[in-house]
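Regression test attached.
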Amino acid sequence: MELIFFFYFALVIALASVLVVALRNPIYSALSLLIMFFHVAGLYVTLHAEFLAAVQIIVYAGAILVLYLFVVMLLNLRHDERYHRQWPVAGLIGLTLVIEGLVLAIFSRRTASSGPTSTETAVEGLGNTEAIGDVLYSTYLFPFEVASLILLVAMIGAIILAKRNIGQDDGLHVANAQVETR
Amino acid sequence: MTSFGSDLLAILPELIVVTAACLVLVLDPVTPASKKELLAWISLGALALCIGLTGGQIGMLNMRVFAFNDLVVVDAYARFWKLLLYVVTGLTILMSLPYLKVERLQLGEYYGFTLLALSGMLVMVSGADLLTIYLGTELMSLSLYVMAGLKRSPRSLEASAKYFVLGAFSSGLLLYGISLLYGATGGTKLASIAGAIGTRGFEDPLLLIATILLTVGFGFKLAVVPFHMWTPDVYQGAPTSVTAFMAVASKAASFAAFLRVFVEGLGGLKADWSPLFLALCLVTLILGNVVAIVQTNIKRMLAYSSIAHAGYALIGLVAAGRGMGESGATSGLASVMLYLVVYAFMTLGAFAVIGMFRKGGIEGEEIEDFSGLAKRQPLAALLMLVFMVSLAGIPPTAGFIGKFYVFMAAVEAGLSWLAVAALIFAAVSAYYYMRVVMVMYMREPEATVVDIPQLVPSPALSIVLACAIAGVIIFGLFPNPLVSLALQSVLSLK
């Protein structure tokens, strides 16, 4: 039963991802991205990671995608034909990789690994949310802090690159003038 | 869990660098444009503190500190790379002082991002877990994407955008490889991955795919052919001081993480990755050296040269993979470390000379701009001569020592033919390096050029050039202390 759900979600994720890059209308692309996000959330549910599933929907589908759609609509992007000339090559390489993956998956005598401890045992007794919080702020505190630095860099970087006229000639003069008038 | 205090103590250099970066970013808006240099001095002070901290421990080769639940390790190997990264970052900041003034690019953020990129590199270098290494890589790359676009000319922005798109793509592949590795071995810690591979053998196809994806992901960061496409455009478009930083520091940090992942984590798959790297190394040597010949822009030429140098350094890793006994692997890895130190000094020096020529509207980046330099600026021409000779690998410079140990490692591992092939390509590379020398010494300055690029000397730049030339000459004449330090540092990598 779980396998059926897994394959359904996996297949839809793969298809929706292909549609995101293949569709010519950016709005359709964004909407297939939405479908993909929902199915990824479904995958989390089958893994008993309900908290992650909820966060996935709230953050990605709810916040990020809406922003994305806003930008697409504000910029009024036209259909973009530029990237569709590489279809045959990309299709060929993709097909080769898919066949290779299938061959490896079917013909290898891969034994199921003892693998990581499943979420079920990890969240046992604790709540889902509590288990994540516990791990995030104790075991993985260091990566968590590094990730926050990455977000800081991304934020400041976006502001700098979007700001006009810094460092350019007139920009510097304006800045100097402001400093002098102060 | 060890006490939190000792964890923080272990990452003290990282904390200092990040604190200094935040300080610079906060102070930037309240610093008048004429006093932005103050921010550079704050950064340099923090770096000096770090050099003192890490340098003081460089003698303690057996000290191996794990922190934050074994996600971070500070061992002799990490300290070796950290020390190199501090020095390179410090020289880059010194080099930027006059360069940014000429470019009218006095941004405090520049120094903040340099330090943040450095903190990412430090995390990569001492990551004992794939998660930490990945996040360090991202921190470094994101800072570099922004720095590449700081000049805000169309070319600089194009460089930034290209670097960002391809870098994000390669990060995705790296992450995919890491997740497959997690699925196959049940852990992201390098030690637990090595343990799982040791007990389960290589027949798992997932491991093979994960290895390939990791190679591709790191290949982008190292600019190894065929993942080098972004390098020439980005190196050309980015401000020269940023190019130097990217070519030296980011390459060194990526190599450090790359070696640690493949030796410490995937050491059991040696037989699988060694031929893979052999192929990459050969293609890189051929393409990097041959395409560099036809370049007319010196920054593009140095970009291809840096691709080729990554190929030379890979020889050491291939040799380490092939090395039968423990000693073979050790000398192979140590030769990579040695090569990157040497490469750092000569490349920084060459970029510092190029940066000097930037003046007003003249880029001073075409090789033709250097014609007759020996007549106009004999000292600068002499310095450039030494750096070019060293890059070509001619004794008695450090470039020769670096190549010598890499080739020796290849011969020891039974790959004499690879050493011979690499030697032939080193001869090819001598052609394009010597062309710069020829243009400087044999050609008259062109009369048609109205505004001949002039040198813009400054005390800060003199320090950089003095350090670079000292590194090239001293490591060329007395390599022994450095060699033995590399050999001993690499022992902790097991």
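Expected vs. actual: identical. Chain B has one domain: 4-492.
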